[in-house]
Amino acid sequence: MKSKLPPAASVSIIVGVAALAFFVGKFRAAREVTFSNESPTAAVRQTSVSAKADSSEVSETIADRMPKPQYGLTVEQARRLTPEERLARIADAALVFNSGNQVEALSGLIGALSKDEILQATDLLGGAQDRGNFQPQEIWIELWTQWGRVDPLGGLQHFVDRPGGKGRDDARSIMHGWLGIDPDAAILWAHEPKRATLDAAAAALALSHEAGGDLGKMEATMLALPENGMTRAECADRYFDMAALAGDAFDPAATYDAMPEALQPAAWSAAFGRISQGARAETIDWVKSHYEASSQNDNAMVDFIGKCVAEDAVGTVAWTSNLPSPKESNYTPLTSAVIAWMSTDREAALKWVNEQPANMIALDLIRASIVRGNKR
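The chain above was modelled as a monomer; its predicted structure follows.
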């Protein structure tokens, strides 16, 4: 006679079988998804689309769904404060040492600043930085961009009056703000001749914005600028960036050679800076064949020569001594090479100098320096 299971055991078996069936079903479903012909990305995208179709929040933007600042105000909230309240909060936030918290605390306040407040806000942040609490670069970008929105010419004049610590990217941030508010006025200003490097950098950004990625249009704009003006050289830097982002294989040497000859002197530094990122021997060959169009006191060229000297001092002074003599300056790549060599092996460098012809103009600065040193 078969024994009967007690009622409790029967219940347990039934529950166990049901649970097993549930997990088998889940496993099969997982296998069906895993081995489906549809890609995981497509599956996620389909799920996202379905969820949005069923959602009542489809009209919300991403910004609406982002968490609100934890330590600061939104721009809208900051605008409801008085100018005195905004500046007081900026003074407090300038003392925050955690950079992430500082960005959160300041971003909304900066976006609400008016023309009358922005210089004082700059002084508050600059004062904190002078005392050792440095603001993240994001803060300065936001501040200069806001200055471009509310008083671009005042902001650029501030850079002329107080250039310390200001660079080309800072001037470009002002221009970004200006282009976002009044692009026609910004571009009209950009076509005017510039006397300050940072003004020229801001102008070049506006002119590249006007060109809209069209290299031919950018060339025409550059040709219309004063030949020896600052803006043409700054535009050349933007020109090479545009060429690099055009989508084709970027060759800075070929880009330079394809430019109108009248633009090549202004574009030499921009071209060299990119060509020197490649093989050293190829860069040297390019300099030898293109040096006559150069701006002879090029900082990138000086750095490059220093690296060449560290690798082969004798070889470097040999090829730099064969470059064409400068027209207006007695400071040449050879001067840079000898100075770099003297810093590592003064005796060998001086011996080489003394063996060179007395009428070698490129060594005049070196010889004069040696004479002054001997008189001390």
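Residues 1-24, 26-58 have pLDDT under 50 and may be disordered.
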